[in-house]
Known about the structure:
By secondary structure, the chain is an alpha+beta fold. About 25% of the residues lie in helices and about 20% in strands. It has one domain: Oxidoreductase, molybdopterin-binding domain (Sulfite Oxidase, Chain A, domain 2).
Amino acid sequence: MTWRFRTDLTERDVTPEEVYRDRRRIMKMLAGAAATGGAMALARGRIARAMSRSELPEETQAKETAQNALSPITPYEAATTYNNFYEFGLNKSDPARRAGRLTIAPWQVRIDGLVDKPGTYDLNDILKRLPQEERIYRFRCVEGWSMVLPWRGFMLKDLLAWVGVKPQARFVAFETLYRPSEMPGQKYPLLKWPYREGLRLDEALHPLTLMATGMYGKPLPKQNGAPLRLVVPWKYGFKSIKSVVRISLVKEQPVTSWNMAAPDEYGFYANVNPHVDHPRWSQATERRLGGGLFAPRIPTLMFNGYEKEVARLYEGMDLRRFF
Length: 323
Ligand code: MTE
């Protein structure tokens, strides 16, 4: 069983007209990603998906069907012009207009804390060592909009295995670049800079947790977090920290930017959960970007549709309390 297609969205969910220009490239990219197993891997992924679906409650299956009926890959234009990246401003259009000035090469990542091989690593050296692959994931923002994105990246667990995690480590903390000269939003106290995020170690080691370097078969656009961002598909988008320069293995739960800003609204876990509303709005449904202004909202899925893969991480936890 390969993890490469361990997601219930594949190119099958892509309708050719919606993916317009990108379809051929995505097909090529998927073919490339599947080089080791090709169609067999894809077929195995589908079988696994079918099996996992039938194990879910009927209500969830119905919601999934409603979602997938509307799940073509989000148009590139929408994913790269409607962004949250407060380092470049508060408006959704600010990152695309202002991120151009960000210097992303060379790019170094400091890996420290409870690791066997702490150090400052050049991103190119990391990429020479770790296999990258393509993944199509749902992406759900806490604000109630969503996308379906074809990422490229490596599994965080591979990076952590390479640097060696010490047994005392329980959490992973991430930091975005702090460079106000190129990130004008950092001149204002919109959030406590640098942007910080964190995961429990088992979440970080989960095979779905990706460090993305590309989207739509191209390098990551700067407004989407170039050259390296976290992608945790079962969590609200704010966990997916952009332009990462530091990864620390720590003992205690790290502080995170949105949790510091509004602890009652943005929890540390931030698992997508249609049953736990944000204090100011419902999380039961979402608006899929690219569907037009009048597109109907679609049901939000538990753990953003990755329940089968990740629910075991939270067994016995009160998800209302640990939201
Ligand atoms: N990372 C940093 N450094 N700064 C940010 O403001 N916004 C987060 C997340 N990562 C953010 C960030 C939020 S709220 C969301 S929804 C996603 O990025 C948006 O990702 P996208 O713009 O690529 O869709």
